[in-house]
Amino acid sequence: MTQSRPIVALPPNDPDHGLSHDQFNAAVTAMTSAFGDPTRREIYLAVRDNPDGFTASEIAEQFSLHSNVARHHLEKLSGGGYLTVEIDAATTRSAGRPSKRYRAALIEGGALAIPLRHDDLLSHLLARALDALGPEQAETIADEIGFEYGQMLAERMEPNAQQRSVQSAIASVADALTALGFDAHADTKGNDLAIVSECCPFGDTAQQYPHVVCALDRGMIRGMLAGLYGDTTPHFESSRPGGADRCVARV
Hints:
single chain, alpha+beta, Muramoyl-pentapeptide Carboxypeptidase, domain 2, 2 domains, 4-stranded antiparallel beta sheet, globular
């Protein structure tokens, strides 16, 4: 009998770990977004076991997939922080768009976890916010940190900085947010473009410091859109900490 290989172990919901219901749901959302598909799990394991990594065409050939399907799986994994992306040097001198090479990200301790470490980030964020004294300064700092982090995520998804369409960028931002536990999806009906988040991985902290956490989220979205598409001015019309049942950012 073949034993299945565990992909991830979620922290137990006990006082030592302090996972709230929202945080537990966010963790499950992040992991199922990346690894809920059995083919994607096998692709991750194949990339992890090959130090040289793979291009989308190589994955497509190995798993008998269309190249677009292989690329979709790889971008889901890279958007979640489980794979790194770089331009394949062997293709930069050839005609056409250079290929991306995907490798497994180095993860501390060898165990998979949500890429965004909420406690570490919030500790840094709140320390700077308290030092600035006042909600206006706190929001400004949170937005700046979120924007920088969003740009870093965009660079990881698109290292050659080639611009996508706004629809493609919004879809990629939603995928990245879901990988971080926000349970987000793109809503692109006609000319009405939006990113809708059904869950907040910051849990009770978002309720205690809504102006700080929401500014951080807004900055992340702006930073990712800036890196994947260009400068935008999203309109954030509702938020869960503000009493709504979901967060909506319209672009």
